[in-house]
UniProtKB/TrEMBL annotation:
InterPro entries: AB_hydrolase_fold (IPR029058), Esterase-like (IPR000801), Mycobacterial_A85_antigen (IPR050583). It comes from the Bacteria. This is Enterochelin esterase. Pfam families: Esterase. It comes from Paenibacillus abyssi. Signal peptide: none annotated.
């Protein structure tokens, strides 16, 4: 397989009109697999921090390569952009824009994508993917709409006390949730806009909370820092995991 085939990717730019978001719209990036056919439905990956997933995670290139090498079922990848000034307010459950963003994601963004592309809607055919706070908001979207989503990719999730408190108080079983979750061992003193946090310990505690409520996890820790150089390397295995029928 030539490198030119890997880099022949179809990525569309879209803008969703929103009644829920203050700015009234949000940009998307949509990767379509080789040979995309509108009469076929495809699994779909929704990524928070869409610009970063496409530019730094190189998710379109990585998915394209795996599909061409028959290691991945053809799928659609949607990156939802975010204004970094409002990222914490939207992604953290105690942020003042969080509820509006979660509703936008499910009530406006996903129907918009479904009206233009043949994405599957079954919970096990959708992956919510995020890094750091993007993993956090993905989890809270799943918790808010448990019938709609069942698969989560959490890369060094920023599970601050508010998130862990919500998880601890969650009264229902999480046996419906399958998560691929990892964190880098060099993330023990990472400086965020909310202070310095030990992401390893934070993710260990979140893992315990999730498992105590019945969630099924593939969890690991390995050498890595809180940055895209680490997460990009881990993405291919995460994509392969999403496509497995029997995850664990």
């Amino acid at each position: 397989m030539s490198e030119s085939n890997v880099y022949k990717r179809t990525i569309n730019k879209e803008t969703v009109t929103s009644k829920l978001l203050t700015e009234g719209e949000r940009d998307l990036r949509v990767y379509l697999p080789p040979g995309y056919n509108e009469i076929i439905s495809y699994p779909v990956i929704y990524c928070q921090d869409g610009e970063d997933f496409f530019n730094f995670g190189r998710i379109a290139t990585q998915a394209n390569r795996l599909i061409l090498e028959d290691e991945l079922e053809p799928c659609i990848v949607v990156g939802v952009d975010v204004d970094k000034k409002h990222r914490t307010a939207e992604y953290s459950p105690d942020g003042d824009r969080h509820e509006s963003y979660v509703r936008f994601f499910v009530e406006e963004m996903i129907p918009f994508v479904a009206s233009r592309y043949t994405v599957r809607t079954e919970a096990d055919q959708i992956l919510l993917a995020g890094d750091s706070l993007g993993a956090t908001v993905s989890l809270h979207i799943a918790l808010s709409y448990p019938q709609r989503f069942s698969r989560l990719l959490s890369m060094s999730g920023a599970y601050y006390p508010a998130s862990r408190s919500i998880l601890a108080d969650y009264s229902e079983s999480l046996s419906w949730l399958d998560a691929y979750m990892f964190v880098g061992l060099q993330e023990t003193e990472f400086e965020t806009d909310r202070g310095v946090f030990d992401f390893v310990e934070m993710n260990r505690q979140t893992k315990q909370l999730l498992e105590a409520k019945g969630a099924k996890l593939l969890y690991y820790e390995k050498d890595g820092k809180h940055q895209w150089g680490f997460w990009q390397q881990e993405l291919p295995d995460a994509l392969r995991w999403f496509m497995k029928t029997d995850l664990l």
